[in-house]
Amino acid sequence: MVPHPAMEIFDPPSPKRQKTEEETTCYDGRPEDFDSDECTDEEMQLFDQELDRIGGGFEIDFKKFRYCFGWRSLDLDDSTMVDEPEINRDFIATLANLALTKYNADRGTSLELGKILIANYHPSCAVTFYISFQVNDPSDGNQTKPFRAVVRYFPGDIEVVSCNPKN
Questions:
Q1: E strands, 14-97, where?
Q2: What CA–CA distance (Å, rounded) separates 120 from 129?
Q3: How far is CA 147 from CA 119, 127, 137, 144, in A?
Q4: E strand or H helix at 107, and its extent?
Q5: Angle of CA points 118, 124, 129, to nearest 5°
Q6: If you compute the radius of gyration of the chain from its CA atoms, what whole number of angstroms results?
Q7: 127 or 32: whose pLDDT is higher?
Q8: Which of 62, 86, 94, 154 is close enough to 90 for a disulfide, judged by CB 3.0 to 4.6 Å?
Q9: 23-66 pLDDT, tens digit each
């Protein structure tokens, strides 16, 4: 799977569907009409508290914030990170499978990827993906269990930072 060229230059996602008024539209982490002088220390602290509360960049409620500090939610059914006909969900499933393969090898398990639930990302020198997904556990009656992975995508390199059950 070849990532879309936008992965390397961090272009804002193309608006392929109409966004509702309730959705926060963040470009480079900022709503289009955001004045940088308006970001207060209190807002930065609230965002940090949200990250602490949810255990990292997973499942951020972007609607709570006027300024997203570079964090973005990934539309899994769009193709902003990949070339069509693939969709972002395909790319994120590949990253989650890499993380789960490492987890299985490290722990001697045989968990299988189930459903991708949500993916957020934060661009810097790499793009760091925070992926929430479900796994199936064949050793436990094929029960579904929630998992999370952090995967960094560097052009030409992928690094699994972590992969663990959701607490």
A1: 26-27, 30-31, 72-73
A2: 6
A3: 12, 20, 11, 10
A4: helix 88-107
A5: 20
A6: 17
A7: 127
A8: 86
A9: 344 434 444 554 555 667 777 777 667 766 666 666 767 666 66
